[in-house]
Known about the structure:
alpha/beta, single chain, two-stranded antiparallel sheet
Amino acid sequence: MTSKKRWNTLSKKFLAEHKKYTDIQEFKINEFTFKSLPGVFSPVISSDTRWYIDRLLPILKGKEFLEIGAGTGSLACMAKLCGATKVAATDINKTAIDNINQNIELHSLDIEVFEGDIFDPIPKERKFDIIFWNHPFNYTADKEDISDELSLSVFDFEYKALKKYISGAKKWLREGGLLLLGTGNIAKINNIKSIAQACGYTLNLMNKTEVDISSCDSNKMDLRIYSFEDI
C-alpha cells in the first residue's frame, strides 16, 4: 500500500501538473463543454470530478444544492442543467470564481456564486437540501505545502478547513438535509471520522471506486462519497 508520505509526494507532482497549464483548457461532461482556467483545480487533469458528477446528479434533481470549493463550477452547472431547482457555489480562489462565472455564462444558467472560505460568504438566511465538498484530500502540518490558492485545492493545513465545513454545515442545511463529502484513501479517513464524531455525526460510506490518480499518473486511488448523519 502506498504510504501517506508517498501520497504527499504524488500530490505535489499532481499540483505541479496543474501549474504547467497556462492556457484555457476545454473539457466535456456528457455532451456539455466547460472551460478550465490556469490556476484552478482542473477536470482536464483530475479524474475525480466526473465520477462525483455521475454519482451526485441523480440525487440533486429537484433539490436546492450548495457546492463548496466548486473549482471550475462544472458540478454546480451540471446540477442546474440536470434539474436542481436552485444552485449556489463557493470558492476561496479568485480565479476559480472567474472560472465558475465563465461556465455559468457559457450555459446561460442561474447560479449564485460566492467568493470566500467555506460558508463565510453564504447569507445566514439561506438553506439548502444538499451540501457537498470535494475537499482537499491531503492533510498537511507543513504550511509550506500551501504556497498559493491552487494548493488549497490539494492540501488542508491540519484539516482546519475540513473541521470548519463539518462543524458549520447545519446552519445552512434544511431539516432533513444531506451533508456530503467527496474524499479518497489519500485522506486521513480516521481523522475525518473523529472530526465528524466530535461534531455530532457518524460518517457513512455512500459510494466508492478505484481510479487513476490523474490523467498524467498511473497510480491508483479510491474515491469515496460520505454522508454525515446525526448521532
